[in-house]
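Example record for the data management plan.
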Amino acid sequence: LLCSCPYRYSTCLCECVWDSDLLWTDFHQKLVDHALISMDTYLGQFPDIKSRIAKRDRKLVDYDSARHNYAAVNKGKKKEGIKITKAEEELERAQKVFEEINIDLQEELPSLWNSRVGFYVNTFQSVAGLEEKFHREMGKINQNLNDTLEKLENQDMSRLVYAAYIHNVKAMHDYNANDSDELELKAGDVVLVVSYENPDEEDEGWLVGVKESDWIQHKDQGKKGVFPENFTQRM
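Corresponding structural encoding:
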């Protein structure tokens, strides 16, 4: 994945979006391949079946007409051999055509009717399986996205503090805080010195900052406090 984002977490954010698009494309393609195409194939049988049923109905009308004609010729007072023979041939031909179509439909229609259950079950199982997998994988991406956004938020907060600090100093001696707004120091502690939020509160010889170790661990500006400058050395 090529990403123009300048930061690692931003790149990860782009990857989440990319993975989401790929997952949706894969889900859509599999839905088409495993469900929609088979559904189109199944439904594609019905126009031909309906056409053949309509043809059977027409041939049944022809068959009934031939039977009535044959019966009428045989009931006549003056029976003519040629007419009887012709009527009989038409009856046999009409009967044969009708029965061929009717027998085929009698074999196919029950099978088509019975196949609906298996088709519905397989189709719904396939769709449900694809959806379950899609939402499971999408859940992982969303979780990764949330984690990335949290890291980005922390990263931005970290930049704000590091951008705001003036310089850093190192404690040369231990300092025991005497008030809640003071910073407890141990020799060797590194402190990020920041500007006073209210310049009127600034006291000569005192600095305000947050211990680097506290910031790295907690990312909490609330841990900042004042401390005597002469207990520290600028780095």
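Summary line stored alongside the record: The helical segments are 8-43, 45-75, 81-164, 212-218.
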